[in-house]
Every structure is written in structure tokens, then in C-alpha cells.
């Protein structure tokens, strides 16, 4: 039994999809072609931010964010205990230590009541995960982060398009 009939979905949009694929094949600019700029502009507009940068994977995006913040050996990054392996994997990949906080049972998101107890002088960032289309309370999360002078990196891979108080996931800061 097929969970999602991708063939039916493709056939519904086949003419438009095929035209765009042929356009790429015609100009043969397979890496960073004009479609990338178009996609990044559309994504930024959709989530309500100035810029969006596409990368190969959500894992890469998290690693890039951590490295851009200078997170490395000896540092800690607070994240949620219930997530896909990539969230914790990238913390270790940059040489930092993941510090896990349990979830809120109703939403499976980071339990903000437990967050501040996990923050230490070695904490360099907070990395919450928005799961199952749900986001943690970003107003409250950002207030905690501001009190401690910490950046927030949203892992919004499973909530893209979700909204909270009129702001979209991946642009909720």
C-alpha cells in the first residue's frame, strides 16, 4: 500500500515540473544556477526573513550555524533529548558537548521549565527542535536565551510552514 501517491502528484504538475527541469538542462548550470536564487528568495519571503540560504541538508544547515557562531571544543549546546540523530551529531562534529533537556509530554518539544537548569557558563547556543509541525514557545525561549546572552538555532526541519503567533517556523526569531 502506497502511503502517498507521488505519481498522481507528479502528473498533476507534470507540465510545469518538466518545463523547469528542461530549463536547467538547457542552461546546464547545475550548481548555483538561477533557480537557487529564485528558491532562496521565495523561501525567505515565505518565512518572513531577509535572507535564506539553501544547503544540501538540514544537518549541514545546523553544522554551518554552529560553526558560524564559533561553537567548538569545550563548549556546550543545549538541545532536546527527543530528536533525530543529526541534531546531536552536529554538536559533537564541531567538538562541542550536547546537553540534553527532556520534552514536554504534550508537544514533544523542549521543556522550557527545565531549560535554564541546563545552561552553564560553557553553554554557547540553544538548539531547540520543532517537531511534528509544532514549535516550542519561541517568545519564552528567546527571553531565556536573551537573559543568558545565547543565540538560538532553530531546527525546523519538521515544522516548515507552521506558524506561532503570526510568525512562521524557520523565521520565528
Kindly report the name of the CATH homologous superfamily of the largest domain.
Answer: Type I PLP-dependent aspartate aminotransferase-like (Major domain)
**CATH fold-type name of the largest domain:** Aspartate Aminotransferase, domain 2
Distance between the first and last residues' Cα: 40 Å
Strand order of the largest sheet: 2-1-3
- What's the helical proportion of residues? 40-55%
The average pLDDT value, as a whole number, equals 92
CATH architecture of the largest domain: 3-Layer(aba) Sandwich
Number of domains: 2
Largest sheet report: 3 strands, parallel
Give the strand content: 5-15%
Structural class: alpha/beta
What is the C-level CATH assignment of the largest domain? Alpha Beta
Could you name the ranges where pLDDT drops below 50 across 5 or more consecutive residues? none
Order of helices and strands: HHHEHEHEHEE
Radius of gyration: 19 Å
* Count of separate DSSP helical elements: 6
Q: How many beta-strand elements?
A: 5
Q: Estimate the global geometry from the Cα principal axes.
A: globular
Could you please describe the fold and organization of this structure?
This protein is an alpha/beta fold and 173 residues long. The chain has two domains: 6-47; 58-168, Aspartate Aminotransferase, domain 2, CATH 3.40.640. The chain is built from six helices and five strands, in the order H-H-H-E-H-E-H-E-H-E-E. The strands form two sheets. It has a three-stranded parallel β-sheet, with helices on both faces. The chain starts with 5 loop residues before the first helix and ends in a 5-residue tail after the last strand.
